[in-house]
Amino acid sequence: MGLLGRYMMINAQTLEELVTLENDDLIEKIEELNQDMENQEYDIDKLWDGLHFLLTGVSASQPIEGNRLSEAIVGVNVLNSDDENVDFVAYTKFEDLSEIITSLKSIDISKLKKLFDLSTFRKARIYPDIWRDTDKEELFDELVHEYKNLLNFYEKAFNKKVHVIVSIY
């Protein structure tokens, strides 16, 4: 199945509850929230690391603190950051969304396409292991599609004045 990335809009009360939970309880609560149709979601599937690498030049396993493009993919505040053996869950507060949206909107897709080199994805061991030169056009199109969907998701979250939970597991 692999590591799947998911973004979910949550209100302040839910965020307050989530930050108090440990890994197993946290994941259980997130799964419960996933079933609630009121919590709008975006599922980036397995392309979270590829999109992070495309936008920042590094793997999502090495988030760049203070870099809004990195934070767009992996969130701003990591939960359970003291334990490397837990599922990855982070959050982004509403107050950070405007800068993240501005950074995402500043991306020049045509420039990214010119620089798109799948050998760098392979060398950096970007997850998942799909970065074949024969699929270059299709992979770039998929990453751009996910980028646009993520930007749209963040704009909706901003308009609703909510926070965002990022989970990768």
Q: Label the structural class.
A: alpha+beta
Distance between the termini: 10 Å
Would you tell me the overall average pLDDT? 95
Q: How can the largest sheet be summarized?
A: 5 strands, antiparallel
Number of E-state strands: 5
Number of helices: 8
The global form is globular
With strands numbered from the N-terminus, the spatial order across the biggest sheet is: 2-1-5-4-3
Q: Helix share of residues?
A: 40-55%
Q: Which runs of at least 5 residues are low in confidence (pLDDT < 50)?
A: none
Supply the CATH superfamily name.
YfbM-like super family
Count of discrete structural domains: 1
CATH topology: Hypothetical protein yfbM fold
CATH architecture: 3-Layer(aba) Sandwich
The CATH class, by name, is Alpha Beta
Please describe what this structure looks like.
This protein has about 170 residues and is of the alpha+beta class. The protein has a single domain (about 5-169), classed as 3-Layer(aba) Sandwich (Hypothetical protein yfbM fold), CATH 3.40.1760.10. Helices cover about 50% and strands about 15% of the residues. It has eight helices and five strands. The longest helix is centred in the last third of the chain and has 25 residues, at about 135-160.
SSE layout and pairing:
Layout: E1 5-10, H1 12-18, H2 23-35, E2 41-45, H3 48-56, H4 68-74, E3 77-79, E4 88-92, H5 94-105, H6 109-115, H7 118-123, H8 136-160, E5 163-168
Antiparallel strand pairs: 1-2, 1-5, 3-4, 4-5
Helix pairs in contact: 3-4, 4-5, 5-8
